[in-house]
């Protein structure tokens, strides 16, 4: 059946930090479960869901703990961190009865499926949540680029960027400036020209060149993800 929502197939991108709760590091199981519940409510509407999860809660290629390491090595470690996060979210979703597949850009056949586009599309058609892990499989990229790439490949209608502590894109950092104003709508070119912190520039350009809208919303409010699918709540549309 066709879902009565604004979108039938979406990419949900969350950062690794969205999974760490109030801890400074790693995975916070109640937070992982809360995110999984958010995904389940949208899945229950019949929406086909792709996910990309960052790795910053565990390891980032450009972080302090990567000091002295070759950039590519550090980036591979970051990609491995995203696989751990993907497995944690998979486990939480399956605990709620949602069928999932973790699909890795780097082969690790005992842990995750390799990425084969047609196979991933089939999973979506069968209403399995596809969690794309290991980023793009390439160093010097980010999981924002991975989310944009896979969203294009999977013909997603939008990328939903779930953020912590902020409910959209502002003209300046709302945590530092009380007069910061949230955009309802902003163009890709303005995001690039004004260096608004949405995604890195290569991800924005990839979305722009394929006319893929980005919806930036807050993950903190329970029901926020479902609300966005029904056109409710506050958010910024980039596109
Ligand atoms: N990474 C990479 N290539 C990719 C995706 C990720 O090299 O295609 C590495 C990179 O080192 C990055 C880390 O994985 O710092 C974690 O990803 P990201 O910083 O995007 O995670 P987030 O900030 O969303 O938690």
Automatic annotation (TrEMBL):
It is found in: Cytoplasm. SUPFAM superfamilies: Carbamate kinase-like (SSF53633). It catalyses: UMP + ATP = UDP + ADP. Keywords: Allosteric enzyme, ATP-binding, Cytoplasm, Kinase, Nucleotide-binding, Pyrimidine biosynthesis, Transferase. Residues 8-217 form the Aspartate/glutamate/uridylate kinase domain. Allosterically activated by GTP. Inhibited by UTP. Transmembrane segments: none annotated. It holds the Pfam family AA_kinase. Pathway: Pyrimidine metabolism; CTP biosynthesis via de novo pathway; UDP from UMP (UMPK route): step 1/1. It is an enzyme of class 2 (transferase). UMP binds at residues 55, 75, 136-143. Its EC number is 2.7.4.22. InterPro entries: AceGlu_kinase-like_sf, Asp/Glu/Uridylate_kinase, Uridylate_kinase, Uridylate_kinase_bac. The keyword Ubl conjugation does not apply. ATP binds at residues 13-16, 56, 60, 164, 170, 173. Residues 21-26 are annotated as: Involved in allosteric activation by GTP. GO terms for molecular function: UMP kinase activity. Its main location: cytoplasm. Homohexamer. Catalyzes the reversible phosphorylation of UMP to UDP. Belongs to the UMP kinase family. This is Uridylate kinase. It comes from Aliiroseovarius salicola.
């Amino acid at each position: 059946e066709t879902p009565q929502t604004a979108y039938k197939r979406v990419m949900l991108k969350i950062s690794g930090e969205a999974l760490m709760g109030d801890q400074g590091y790693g995975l916070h199981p109640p937070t992982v479960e809360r995110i999984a519940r958010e995904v389940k409510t949208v899945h229950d509407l019949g929406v086909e869901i792709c996910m990309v999860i960052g790795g910053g809660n565990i390891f980032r290629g450009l972080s302090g703990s990567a000091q002295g390491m070759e950039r590519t090595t550090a980036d591979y470690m970051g990609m491995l961190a995203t696989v751990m996060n993907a497995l944690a979210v998979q486990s939480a979703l399956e605990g709620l009865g949602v069928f999932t597949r973790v699909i890795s850009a780097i082969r690790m056949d005992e842990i995750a499926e390799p990425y084969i586009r047609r196979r991933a599309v089939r999973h979506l058609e069968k209403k399995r949540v596809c969690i794309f892990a290991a980023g793009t499989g390439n160093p010097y990229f980010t999981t924002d680029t991975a989310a944009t790439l896979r969203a294009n490949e999977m013909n997603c209608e939008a990328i939903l960027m779930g953020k912590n502590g902020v409910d959209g894109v502002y003209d300046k950092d709302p945590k530092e400036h009380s007069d910061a104003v949230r955009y309802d709508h902003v163009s890709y070119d303005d995001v690039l020209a004004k260096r608004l912190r949405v995604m890195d520039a290569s991800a924005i350009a990839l979305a722009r060149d394929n006319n893929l809208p980005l919806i930036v919303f807050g993950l903190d409010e329970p029901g926020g993800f479902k609300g966005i699918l029904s056109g409710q709540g506050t958010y910024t549309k980039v596109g």
